[in-house]
Amino acid sequence: MGRRYAILDVFTNKKLTGNPLAVVLDAEGLSDEQMQAITREFNLSETVFVLPTDNPGHSANIRIFTPGRELPFAGHPTVGTAILLAMERFGEITGEQDSMVVLKEKIGAVRCGVVLKENAAGFAEFDLPQLPRPAGPAENRDTIAAALGLEPTDIGFENHAPSCYEAGVPFVFVPVRDLDALSRAKPNMTQWKKAFREATSEDAFVYCRETRVHDSGFHARMFAPTMGIPEDPATGSAVGAFAGAIHYFDDLPNGTHFIRIEQGYVMGRPSLIDLEIDIEARKMHAVRIGGQATVVARGELYI
Question: Active site annotated at which positions (predicted)?
Answer without folding.
Answer: 46
